Amino acid sequence: MKKLVKLLISCVMFTALIFTAAGCGQDKKAETAAAPAAAAQEAKTYEWKMATTWSTGIPWHDTAVHFAETVEKITNGQLKIKIFPDGALVPAFEVFDAVRNGVVEMGHDWPGYWKGKDEGFVAFASVPFGLNNIEYSIWLMEGGGQALADELYGNFGLKPLMGGNSGQEMGFFTKSPVTDVKQLAGMKIRTVGWAADILKEMGVSVTPLPGGEIYLAFERGVLDSAEFSTPFITYPMGFQEIAKNVMLPGWHQTGVQNMFTVNKKSYEELPPYLQQALVIASYETQMWDIARSEKKNAEAILKYQAEGVKFNKLDAASLNELRKTTDAYLTKIRATNPLLDKILASQNSFIAEYSVWKDLRGGVAAFPKDDYLAGKHYE
């Protein structure tokens, strides 16, 4: 009996060794077969096209260039992106469809331009009295904003990536001082996004011209007032040559958020490490654009002042009226768009949470020092 047991154990062990050896052989064969495929993927280069909504003279073109250069560097040249500014391949307002239809692999734009596709896009561009540049970044990275962006853009076969934030806009150029919103009655104004609708609700005539058409329209009197973006972005456009007054603050766009819009199929065809390279480059570009813009916005304001531009702040009653009209307008459009409602609810929840810390830390680093010591930071 003992001899039989020993024989059975020996047979089982021998069989196990045979299967183990066979399994190892199969694993090695699988690894050997997979190796060339992985090597081929790593050796493959990708050449993409990016269409933008900017002309080369607008600093956001430089943002697109910065992103493309960053991607090429961190992928060691495996993913190269060629940039086509406004009109070089498609007109500015056709960039969305060009990316969606695969004419180009990606675009760079201000999401508010796609308002006609879905109101939700404006929430990722700038909300009146809403998030600023740092707050947009936190919300997108850590507050659930990116997942909501993926949901909205995904409905159109697109993948969104942060594309820089230039900060708060400077306000509206006017030919005479404006401190009361009622003074806008009868004026023809250039603005875009929800600000255009809100001003229309208040009886103001609004024209949403592309950036390249604003100067001539303003100069020829087709427009009585115009805005485009932040001090830094707007300065090269030369509006100060036509009008020497600016109506502040930039309530209409408190944080100008741009996006890189990627064709989802093209994105998914990339190996995971190149997908991640695009994400990393977008994060880096977002932070670079904030730092660059804040520095250059300050420089541009001093240039405007040196050229005789006067900055006129709206009175409290006007800002309250604008805020009430904004709230009523957003409530109305949220009722017809469940995803937009979810996006704005997320932003408002973030603001409610973040504002406590934001308010508590305020008042300790006012500039310049003499104003701080004089108590002007409490005014």
TrEMBL record:
GO terms for molecular function: metal ion binding. PROSITE patterns: PROKAR_LIPOPROTEIN. Na(+) binds at F228. GO terms for biological process: transmembrane transport. Substrate binds at E169, R190, E227, Q253. It comes from the Bacteria. Transmembrane segments: none annotated. Residues 1-21 form the signal peptide. InterPro entries: DctP_fam, SBP_TakP-like, TRAP_DctP_sf. Keywords: Metal-binding, Signal. GO terms for cellular component: tripartite ATP-independent periplasmic transporter complex. NCBIfam families: TRAP_S1. This is ABC transporter substrate-binding protein.
